[in-house]
Amino acid sequence: MAITSNATIYDGPRPVSAVNHGAALASLCSALAVLVFFKWQDSNDAAFCLVAVVTFIAFPHIGLELLTWEKRPPYDSPWQRFAVKLWGQLGLFCVLALAYFVFQGFFQSFLVPLADLGRGLALTVIVATPLYIWVTDRHMEQPEDGLYQFGLCLIGRFKAAELPVIRQFLLSWVVKGFFGPLMAGFALNDMRWFLDFSVSEGLQNSSDVYEAAYKMIYFIDVNFAVTGYLCTFRLLRAQIRTTEPTMLGWVVCLLCYPPFWDVFSKNFLKYEEGYYWGDWLSDSPLIWSVWAVLIIISILIYMWATVSFGIRFSNLSNRGTITSGPYRWMKHPAYVSKNLSWWLIAIPFFGNGGLATSIRDCIALILVNSVYYFRAKTEERHLQADPDYVVYSSWMERNSLYAKLKALVLR
User: Fold this and answer.
1) How many other CB atoms are found less than 10 A from the CB of residue 401?
2) In this structure, what are the phi and psi dihedrals at residue 3, rounded to the nearest 5 degrees?
3) Is 161 within 8 Å of 144 (Cβ atoms)?
4) Are 39 and 31 in contact, with CB atoms under 8 Å apart?
5) Are 314 and 9 in contact (CB under 8 A)?
6) Maximum CA extent, the chain
7) Does residue 190 contact residue 215 with C-beta atoms inside 8 Å?
């Protein structure tokens, strides 16, 4: 094994992934088992089902962490530091509440639908927060973290606080405060669909099977996303280590999600004309089936990428380098497969509005793809500060699917 001084060549084995892929697949099996159980029980409590699925997704990773827990005596945890952290957490919750109060559009669209779920978890959060802060503080080598620094600011000790640490800490909570409710809302809506779905009535033909499979794959994906945002626990080594530091990185990421995407896509990058692949291939059942399989495979790869993160899925943040699953073959399998599926679904190159419309739609979709290209590049730039990612990136220069195909062509 060798790494050059500029870390561009690494000829060792594949770097170890931050998430055990076996545990990730066990999480997937656990989630599916829970869903089958609730479907068999004919349950209609979507909020409870969602909590159960998220819990069972997390179980394999929690179990693995407990098995590999480094046994060592706890560090000292003076009450003064604990009090500062507890005050900081209380202040943070107040800041989040104020933000949701000010941004009423976000609150009404994404928080209000989660009211039943929130009420059920509120007491757990209130009781568990002080205990978690105390236990975590006692097992930290450097306990004066972002929460402590933020608490110092709230009690007026500004000179003692480290502002760069506070900035990263607050940015990590912006990520969780925005994406957590967003993903939970998606998952709750999908859970209602799943519990109401009738297999006998909903799978009448091949088109129904395709639609159900398509929705189910994204349903599983968003459940893992919710778990990721809920399990940013330092005790599980799943905390947010660093957050995207650049405005460009935040912009290109947020553009891909509601409410920003709704405005952006309708006004600038509208590439759909209401004529889709199923309309195009309606007279060719065999080709229709092949095309449907290609779409399902592409979004299965997208879901597989999310599953590979286990409880560490999160936008705009570094929670450890993933080198297993589809990340064994490419750096950005989720982005590649998702964008490919849009070309297969929208077929902008073969619309029913004439050549000019097709050209315009293709350009629009290419620009959408460009947004994801810049997401990938800003993420890589952010992760280059992590030595583990530098090694992984170097390894991929020789071992990715693209590198192997390039070597085959140039042979």
Assistant:
1) 14
2) -125, 125
3) no
4) no
5) no
6) 73
7) yes
Degrees, nearest 5: CA angle 174-176-181:
110
Cα 329 to the center of its chain, rounded Å: 19
**Is 0.85 surpassed by the pTM of this model?**
yes
- Token output for 390: 């530098």
pLDDT tens by residue, 175-199: 999 999 999 999 999 999 999 999 8
Nearest CA among 7, 11, 32, 4 for reference residue 219: 32
Secondary structure (H, E, C), 328-375: HCCCCHHHHHHHHHHHHHHCHHHCCCCHHHHHHHHHHHHHHHHHHHHH
Contact 22, 12 (CB under 8 A): no
CA–CA distance, 81 with 149 (Å, rounded to integer): 10
Residue pLDDT, tens place only, 385-403? 999 999 999 999 999 999 8
Tokens representing 270? 């509208």
Which sign, positive or negative, has the C-alpha torsion 174, 49, 341, 400? positive
> Locate tokens 């829970």: which residue?
34
Q: What is the number of other CB atoms lying within 10 angstroms of the CB of residue 230?
A: 19
